[in-house]
Amino acid sequence: MKILAHSYVCPKGVSLNGKQLFDTTGEENPLKSAYQQLGVDYPKFYKMDVLSKMAFIGTEILLPFFPKELDQENDLQLIFANNSASQNTDNLFVESYEQLNKPSPSLFVYTLPNIVTGELCIRHKWYGENCFFVEDAFNPAHFSEWSQIALNKGNNSCLCAWVEAKTNGEQECFLFLLTNSENEEHSIEFELSTLIKQYRNE
Amino acid sequence: MSDLKENLKAQIIEQLNLEDLTPADIRDDAPLFGDDGLGLDSIDALEFIVLLDSNYGIKIADPAEGKEIFHSVNTLADYISKNQ
Q1: Do residue B17 and residue A47 have CB atoms under 8 angstroms apart?
Q2: Domain presence at residue A72
Q3: How far is A30 from chain B (nearest CA, A)?
Q4: Predicted ipTM?
Q5: Whole-prediction pTM value?
């Protein structure tokens, strides 16, 4: 297994394969700024929750690295995870009916974390399997194991993401595209651990 | 009536998070749903029901009516002016 490409989205900016593409430091709305710098026309972006917005941006910049032979209808599995599920949006929805007395349907639809994968599948017409796990922390071994299972089942590639929006405002989306490889210089777990530390400046 | 339509356009943009549009971009007679119009979806239709209730005190008893009421800014304004 090998990593074809990876991206990282956070309030400070957007990076692709370790290099910063967009600097959004100090922006009032960093994700809106990143979307506008991306130059993509997809008005539904504005309606998405934070998780979906981050994954949308991180995926758009990964598209050139998808294998050309990929049958997008069948050969791609999405494996996503985070710790807070959709708690950020859950709280906003509760606020919409408890404090504002206006329960918002458009918030309600994002009160499940796996809506993120649905948004991406709609955008890119991906019809393969997808899953979303809620875990204590970023777990490279878990991503590796599930990706290997998916690839062994015949999938060409796996789009994986740790996409997190905590209620304290911390946000990050680490996306990586995995495929099979005969030669592995490093274990995927080690590589993923190293990459996320670099992106987080740890 | 023209004030009502302009207010409606601003409220639609705010309520539905259509951040890349201005009221001038929405024609009075343009379909709001479907690919020919603003491309709104079923969740947006629910937002319209909330908008009519909270901003104009109008409750839509029969959701099937929504298709005609929410067709355009013209039909929305006409319904509000007759039912408020």
Answers
A1: yes
A2: no
A3: 15
A4: 0.73
A5: 0.90
